[in-house]
Amino acid sequence: MKVSYNWLKEYFDLDVDPKVLAEKIERTAVEVDEVTCAADGLKKIIVGYTLDVQPHPDSDHLNVCQVDVGEDEPIQIVCGAPNVAKGQYVIVAMHGARIKDNVKIKRSKMRGEQSNGMICALQEIGFEEKVVPKEYVNGIYVFPEDSHVKPGEPVYNYLGMDDNVIDTSVTPNRGDLFSMDGNAYEIGAIYDKVPVLHHRQLETVDQEIDIKDLLNIKIDAPEDVQAYQMGIVKHVKIEPSPFWLQVRLMTAGVRPINNVVDVTNYIMLKYGQPLHAFDYDKLTTKEIHVGYSPKQTKFVTLDGEERELRATDLMIKDGDKNIAMAGVMGGLETEISDQTKTVVIESAIFDPIKIRKTARYHVLHSEASMRFERGINPATVTDALNEALQLTAQFGQGEAVKDQLSPVDPNPQSVEVTLDLTRINHVLGTSLTVEEVTDILRRLQFTVQVSDEVFKVTVPARRWDIHIPADILEEIARIYGYDNLPSTLPTGSTTIGRLTTSQQVIRGIRELLQGSGLNQAMSYGLTTAEKAKMFMMQESEETKLDFPMSQDHAVLRMNLISGLLDDVAYNVARKEANVALYEQGRVFYRTADVDRPSEVEHLAGAITGSMVTKSWYDKEVPVDFYQLKGIVALLLHDLNLEESVSYVANQTRPEMHPGRTADIYLGDHVIGFIGQVHPQIEKQFKIPETYVFELDLQALLDAPKRIQHYEPISKYPAITRDVALLIDKEVSNTEIVAALKKKSNHHLEDIQLFDVYSGKHIPENKKSVAYTLTYRDKHNTLTEDEVNQEFEQAISELKSTFEVEIR
Fold it and tell me: Which chain regions cross the lipid bilayer (predicted)?
């Protein structure tokens, strides 16, 4: 909310530096984003009057202007604006002036003609384009007749540029601060001043017409309408608003449109009550309905966009025809135009939840919807309508119809809250007296009755955020001053902080992966429906958001890899060829009969390129399946799991390469998978060859683990035996190792595969594999006979299990 300092001074005498006031507001009420004065940094910008305008002799778009700037002689300025003409009061930047962005204006010649300054558009002196009246967006600004400007005088006061604007960030619970009246009450409480509210009464009325003969209203959704009123102004002439009103709106960040629309915006800023104006002659049935329309009904809003309605969007209708989205935006068909003669003005309060859902779904966060979402003061619904009718009649030279239609009357209700002084001082840590508390509540314009240090506080309807004693305590603390509250250290027994077992394991996993060369990544928990279904480790239903901010973040993720691939793609697109990432986070699984998904901790990694940096003594080696498997194997080994870990080839995962993918088993249960991303998926993500893994971290945390123990290194020597086998290609290394271990006793210390060969001199569908078997006795020196006996038992087991030939 842009709070005008000059407007605030109309409520009470205010002699406080604007920046000091802003700091006080921030310490007491809501956050202040900034304090701005549009005139700061500007210099020598004055009012000029165009005495004569002639075409430039050497240009088809420039004009040579003789401008009265309050000096003895007019000055000549060359101007290229399409709307410059004789007899206009304009903005002139003199020689030596400073305009927006500290641009200095100097005398110069433009195609041979002397130019002694510049005739300016509002944008050139610091106004945002969105607040400039549309007729002046592409040209210079021309002061209207009622501005009463004089040549030679600075423009700052006329255009409100000398006003200090305090831009506040209103919290959801303080919707009352979305109005100047609300801010006046708040600042009055801070500085112990009573605001004087200037609420105009309806005076210009047509006594002969009964409004019920002109319009009828039916509320078809009474549960969503807390107040609804309409008034009518006849014989209106649509024209620009008075100059003072245009300046006030531009200062508040609102573009002036015409006298009717500007009045509704002015009332919204003043009261916090959004209004909407309809062209009466564009209503066909003259019967207003407030209700719902069928799903997928088309509706064109004031911004010219066609929108597809939901069945839950609250609408204002002319009979069966939609004319406005209640509380959000009006319709294009009934907008106020230059031909409008009779105006219908609506003042209402709608269900804030309905308005918020409609605004979010259609991405229409208007000034009106922001206020309806946060609440409206029911005590001023009628006052706001009456003042709007009076100003519309006054500015449009029309007459308001005497009565208003009110099918749902506003119901302002005060709230009574009781609390005692002991409780106040106990919670706030203060020693306030009854008189001090009473004075604070009086400054807030609350009614207070005190009996035996018990306060019975009556809160007016304009503060609808207050309901319970804790709310009153907050108000007392705010006005008393947070800086004045005593500072005390917490008391109680101290405890030694430590990590839980799960936290220790997760931290160890992170250190291991980072030590292995992977960097931690954090991806969004929300993704697209397509990516959510990729790389899934179990069947699950989608969990969709009802109101996603974008379709890219509409579904809860069911894997981590797709997010990591997005991160890989981001880096690859920026010429980072070597990317190694891991992520630890939650995925969300849901069964069809359950609304709320279960959250499961997962761990995933993705590597592309090389993990070894090219140097003078070494070359880059592209990452492969076995390098990533080594990292995963080290991780699982470090967890010291009781059950054995095994890797089984899997060709059925659709997003993974069918020949380079394996499921990871813990005992008999799949806890993850590892391998290369399928080339088609790599192409979809626009990434090179990439290897990934994903583990069910929750299953690993819950799995039984061996107690960590350490053994001394044996002082006795090891004995090795090499063996080369000719075996079927289908037999895996895991199966061979398992067979070798089956018939070996505790002397077999290690099995190392050092050669795999197939091709020339090897039969078809066969392969040659070679192993080194290491034997060691931890307590004695092994003999050759002991090693030979154990080695022969292992070879016999291989021969009996597989059709193997010893080479």
Answer: none
Angle (nearest 5°) at CA 637 between 632 and 642: 125
Whole-angstrom distance, CA of residue 309 vs CA of residue 298: 6
Residue 566 is assigned to a ligand binding site: no
* DSSP label of 560: S
For 490, the 3-state DSSP assignment is coil
Place 208 in a pLDDT band, splitting at 50, 70 and 90.
Answer: confident
Is 702 among the annotated ligand-binding positions? no
d(CA 161, CA 8): 15
- Residue 692 pairs with which residues in a beta bridge? 606, 675
- CATH architecture of the domain 43-147 equals Beta Barrel (2.40)
Domains 2-38+163-190 and 415-484 share a fold: yes
* High-pLDDT (> 70) share of the chain, %: 100
What was the pLDDT predicted at 745? Answer: 67
In this prediction the pTM is 0.70
31 is in an annotated binding site: no
Q: For domain 205-408, which architecture applies?
A: 3-Layer(bba) Sandwich (3.50)
Q: Match domain 719-806 to its CATH number in 2.40.10.270, 3.30.70.380, 1.10.20.10, 3.90.640.10.
A: 3.30.70.380
Give the domain 2-38+163-190 fold. Answer: Phenylalanyl-tRNA Synthetase; Chain B, domain 1 (3.30.56)
Give the pLDDT confidence of 209-223 residue by residue, as tens digits.
889 999 999 999 999
Mean pLDDT of 243-265: 97
Rounded Cα gap, residues 606 and 682, in angstroms: 12
Q: How many angstroms separate the CA atoms of 437 and 448, rounded?
A: 10
Give yes or no for a contact between 771 and 723, defined as CB atoms under 8 angstroms apart: yes
Predicted confidence band of residue 616 (pLDDT cuts 50, 70, 90): confident
**Mean pLDDT on 193-219:** 90
pLDDT tens digit string along 576-608? 999 999 999 999 999 988 888 999 999 999 999
The answer on whether 220 is annotated among ligand-binding residues is no
